[in-house]
Amino acid sequence: MPGAFSRSEGERAGTHLLVMLHGYGTGEERMESLFATLPAGFTAAAPRGSLDVGDDVGWYLLDPGLRTEQGTVIAAASGVLAWLDGVLATGPFRSVSLFGFSQGMAMATMLLRLRPDGFRCVTGIGGFVPDVELLAVTEPLPVRVPYLWQRGTADHMIHPGAVQDTQEWLTANTALTRREFSDVGHVITPAMMVETDIFLREHVLDDG
């Protein structure tokens, strides 16, 4: 799985890994543009989705209601975990955290659901939690990982039902911090990255 990294392989040992997952119809370059906003001490890794979407990519097909076949979602997330295991072999890293925007937030949440003891914290922006009944039967998760959920009040890409379902799942399964930004649409803003910086410092750097 191709992707972008903020450090070369020889510079990663002893850093904290942040896996950054892009949205549907974009690519790893969108996450790469955020590398410079992260606190020192991190290695950022942005894999590229495997689903062709015109000239860009995504992680799995979505219908307008943000639904898809649950096996497809699990397969996509399992592919990222296999890629991640290869990255972890290039460390050793001090911890692993997740960051996702839009469909990337859905993917980050899926990774947490499949490997709940594998991540220090999660940041999700402008996304949602997929409805996957196969996993829901084993939830709530055994570990409540710190989760920062950020969204704009003018984000109409994620319909109100999905927002409500996401709120309910995150409340039941994570140590949730929610931030809303007035009149902000389906974007990542500088203010959101400031919140991400604070969150990562608190839950990763301050924890050692």
Automatic annotation (TrEMBL):
Family under the similarity heading: Belongs to the AB hydrolase superfamily. AB hydrolase 2 family.
GO MF assignments: hydrolase activity
PANTHER family: LYSOPHOSPHOLIPASE-LIKE PROTEIN 1, LYSOPHOSPHOLIPASE-RELATED
Phospholipase/carboxylesterase/thioesterase domain boundaries: 95-203
Name of the featured protein: Phospholipase/carboxylesterase/thioesterase domain-containing protein
Domain of life of the native organism: Bacteria
Pfam families to which the protein is assigned, alphabetical: Abhydrolase_2
InterPro entries: AB_hydrolase_fold, LYPA1-2/EST-like, PLipase/COase/thioEstase
Keyword terms, alphabetized: Hydrolase
